[in-house]
Amino acid sequence: MTLLILGLVIFLGAHSVRIVADGWRTATIARIGALPWKGLYALVSIAGFVLIVIGYGMTRAQPTVDLFTPPGWARHLASLLTLFTFILLAAAYVPGNRIKAAVGHPMIAGVKLWAIAHLLANGRVGDVVLFGAFLVWAMFDFRAARARDRATGVTRTSAGIARDAITVVVGLVGWAVFAMMLHGMLIGVRPFGPA
């Protein structure tokens, strides 16, 4: 559990700089340059992510400590919610779609929905620590990002229904590939396999 928590502190800490120290971040980028900042940010994020993966894997290998037993329907609801998560992730990258125009920060909203989905379907201590930490972070980050948008007068427009369709199709395909194949290979749990 120690490695998981350390990884979460490092990874989410790096991703929280704009929440708690946006002025320091801006001053540091001005002092050292954007490229070195991105390099340091990437290194810290990767280190934190690796610790999360190793630490979470260790919690799964240890004897199970269940905080609650999710009901059977929770897996199905989690699968449905992650479908919307993938659409939100696609919306973050497809320019000019209405989802991004409406939500503002679909990547963060997607992380929030992903965390909720996994908290519903997993009751082990390690799961609650991992997904709970991401949920709390996403809530604070989304609020901070929307506040920055309001302060700077950011507005988003959409470029029509074709961009919306592309967003939904990319999200659906990404979800299908991950849910049907990659989740089992990478995580060891098949969302549509035996419980």
Q: How many H/I helical runs?
A: 9
Oligomer: single chain
Query: How many structural domains are formed by the residues?
Result: 2
- Compute the number of strand runs: 0
| Poorly predicted ranges | none
The biggest sheet, with number of strands, parallel, antiparallel or mixed sense and barrel status, is: none
What is the average per-residue confidence, as pLDDT, rounded to a whole number?
Answer: 92
Amount of beta strand: under 5%
Q: In one word, what is the shape?
A: globular
Distance between the termini: 24 Å
Order of helices and strands: HHHHHHHHH
| Helix residue percentage | over 70%
Structural class: mainly alpha
Based on CA atoms alone, the radius of gyration comes out at 18 Å
Features:
single chain, 195 residues, mainly alpha, 2 domains, 0% strand
Short description:
With 195 residues, the chain is an all-alpha fold. The protein is built from 9 helices and no strands.
Structure description:
- The structure is a single chain.
- The protein is an all-alpha fold and 195 residues long.
- It folds into two domains: 1-62; 66-195, no CATH class.
- It contains nine helices and no strands.
- The longest helix is centred in the first third of the chain and has 28 residues, at 34-61.
- The radius of gyration is 18 Å and the shape is globular.
- The mean pLDDT is 92.
